[in-house]
Amino acid sequence: MKSADLIPRNALAWIIAAQLLLLLPHVLRLPLWIVLLYGAAFFWRLQIYRGRSAVPNRWLKLLFIGASMAGIAASYGSVIGLEPTVALLLVAFALKLLESVARKDGYVVIFLGFFICITEFLFSQDLLIVIYSAVVVWVLTTALIALHRSAAIDDTGPMRLAAVMLLQAVPLMLVLFFLFPRIGPLWNVPIKTQAAKTGVSDMLRPGDISSLAQSSDVAFRASFAREVPPVSSLYWRGLVMSRIDEGAWRTVSYFETPPAERRAPPVEKTGESLDYSVIIEPTQQQWLYGLRYAEARQGGILQLPDYRLLNPVVLEQEFRYRVRSWPEAALGRDISPWRRRLETQLPEGSNPRTRALAESLYRDTGNDAEYVQRVLALFRQQPFRYTLQPPLLDNNSMDQFLLETRAGFCEHYAYAFAVLMRAVGVPARVVSGYQGGEINPVNGTVIVHQFDAHAWNEVWLEDRGWVRVDPTAAVSPARIEFGLENAMREEGSFLSSSLLSPLRYRGISWINALRLRYDAVTYQWQSWVVGFDGQQQIDVLRGVFGEINARLFVGVMLASFGSMLGLVAASLFLRNRQGRHRDPALRHIRLLQTRLRRIGFDLRPGESPGAMGRRAAERFPGASDDLRAIARLADAALYRPLGSEQRGKMQRSLRRQVRRLRLHPGR
Amino acid sequence: MLIAAINYENNMSYALTFLLATLFVVAVLHTYANLSGLTLHGSGGGSGFPGDLLPFSVRLMGGRQSRYALRVRWRDSSLGAGEAQLDVPPNASTEAQLYARASQRGRFLPGRLLVESSYPLGLLRCWTSVDLALSGIVYPSPQRHPDILGGSDPGQRGRWHPRPGEDEFYGLREYRKGDRPRQVYWKGLARGQSLQSKQYSTYASEDDWLDWDSYPGVPTEQRLSYLCYQCLQLHARRQQYGLRLPGLRLSPSDGAAHRDRVLTALALHGLTQE
């Protein structure tokens, strides 16, 4: 193999640097052995470079591949799914380095690198990750350029050229990005099997939400078209749970619903409507959050019979959806016998003391609405405590909670309330989602954090349909009015386990201002870049161009590409041209030289304009007088010590002479 | 990558995919600019026998811009491999050495040169094929005539003609001004004879005329090959020789320059001058 076909050493250094940078964001998702494998591969490659060890032979390579496959299968339990696939790619990336000796192997490694860069985006499209990846792309491009250059290791040329080329490519990339039609997935792709599901789950046990309340992660951000409603009225419905199984509330699945009940009963849309869009962080779940009564303003989102929104596929990435809500609309004024039965069911023989309590309370009222008030009054008057650290209950016993411990978080109250309602045949269910949120003064979005997770109830009342009741509000009005942080001020348990969260330091004003500003940037990023979709694309294009048609599309594409490339080409080729000389005399001489060269007169390096003119005079006898005159004028204008006025005169007559000159090829 | 982007509906993947695509487009211009404005000067060529490698050199000048990873090779790849990679610093020049394998007798025209580069990304190759009017001379391949033994044995020579030289005594003649003192026949002078000079001669046979007509009935190329062989033999023996071809006569002489003249005449014999 010729040395010219080998990977230059500076390219090798860039490749290794790029590999390290690419590995870094994946590290926490990978089993440790892959990280160690990278270390070993780098060391081995270094030894190969120093000539101390050999490139692995075919059998050894096969052994490595087999062992890595087995290792991945063992670590992930399968080789199918996104994480094992990415791990496999990363392992291949490390192993490929070992056999990369020739330049063509260098290509493979670098293009694999670009692909791995994309896999990182499947996990996160956070602004910081994207900035980081831009650096990685820069390093990869540098490696690609260095692969074609034989230069010293400290040469910064490839770096600079890579930066220039990428910057030139960015405007064109943006054009493509905004114009490329967004079509749906072509086929099903491996999904993330290992990612933790975050947020509210479809099972609710006492203690579930209080554990969520320790997290300061953002659940979603909502931006309202008009004014943001009062925070205390922001009940983001996510899940409606109508069944109790083994002490846990859970949702009714599609198949448990009889066919006649699978469609949401029509809702009379009354009162003012609210338009807003939500960008939800990946949850690995399907449900979406909205204020009641919510309808999606875009296709592809399902409306379930209990009036909640469901995305047909699991949310693996940030997802943006647009919603319109009618907060005053009554939900489900008519209740079907099946639903009534469903919403009043209680497990046989559970919580006998609670049932007795419910019956005694109900007997005094006789009216469902009044009964609800009685129960809420009970929560208010009895010494119930709202706490993030409730005592454990045996078998999720509501008897124990209501009559003994009397300390719980929202899910305890919602649970107990629903049991109390169902015990006397009032249809009731538990709703979980988020309540409230933080309004970002920078851009007016509502930031909903995981600690805003909440559970409340819906009770069906005659003529009013499903009415929202929040028993937590009865116990701790501050929770609803001012959020969890204020409700837990005395207890000091707010975010007690996440010391690093900037939210803990909300008290320090500049940290808070910084946090809110960053959050606003994140929102812009998510809504314009990460969440950019077909709908937005059409909106933008319509906003800019009015009507959209194919011809316009192509036209914009061609025009933008043409102009951008024209600029790049101009910058590349103009630097190559001979610059204009500042001395006018030299400019005229240059013109003459061009003409002479064109008719076959050889220019000699180091020849003065005068000497050239005299030589040309011999060569072209027909113009010899003129050429001699030019030679004299050129010598005078260039070299004779003259005043500026006289020199100007010389230069002008030189120009006249050059213009007047007629040259004929041949002798 | 685009498929990954579409299937995962991942905007950043779209962005990176498009960035690479446009990088490719931008690379077209950069690759072209790397080659554009390059000045080439070809030289060399020289001469050789069929199958020899004739050296050529190409000087590349890049102007104010630096050029990287240029490759110069023959467009006709059967002529031989080219130079691997050359960089041209700004305002300087680099010389590429190229060798072409000479084929048949005559004026050797290696044809166009291919100057190419896939710098900076290696994804695109920009090339230009330039004609630098490079040429060389290919002599006939020397062949020994089976019957005439090419004068390899001086004893088998035919007639000998005396020619001025220093090898063998030939006779005496009247002293002329300019004769060296060593040449003067001092013994004769001592005997009272007139001042005479010794004459030496180098024997030259008829063979030291490389004659077209020596090989009647032999095809042209074959004849030229025989003559070529003879020429080389005579040159190796440092003899003087002349060349007689139809329409061409080179008077006898010796030395490398003469040999090259003779061989060139053989190489170009019968070929129209272009």
From TrEMBL, chain A:
Residues that span the membrane, as ranges: 30-47, 59-76, 105-123, 129-147, 159-180, 552-574
SMART domains to which the protein is assigned, alphabetical: TGc
Coiled-coil intervals: none
Species: Chromatocurvus halotolerans
Biological classification of the source: Bacteria, Pseudomonadati, Pseudomonadota, Gammaproteobacteria, Cellvibrionales
Keyword line: Membrane, Transmembrane, Transmembrane helix
UniProt-listed Pfam families: DUF4129 (PF13559), TgpA_N (PF11992), Transglut_core (PF01841)
Record's keyword annotation contains Magnesium: no
Domain Transglutaminase-like intervals: 402-473
Superkingdom: Bacteria
Annotated signal sequence range: none
Name of the featured protein: Uncharacterized protein DUF4129
From TrEMBL, chain B:
Domain of life: Bacteria
Keywords: Membrane, Transmembrane, Transmembrane helix
PANTHER family named in the record: SLR1927 PROTEIN, SLR1927 PROTEIN-RELATED
Organism expressing this protein natively: Chromatocurvus halotolerans
Transmembrane region(s): 12-33
Entry protein name: Uncharacterized protein DUF58
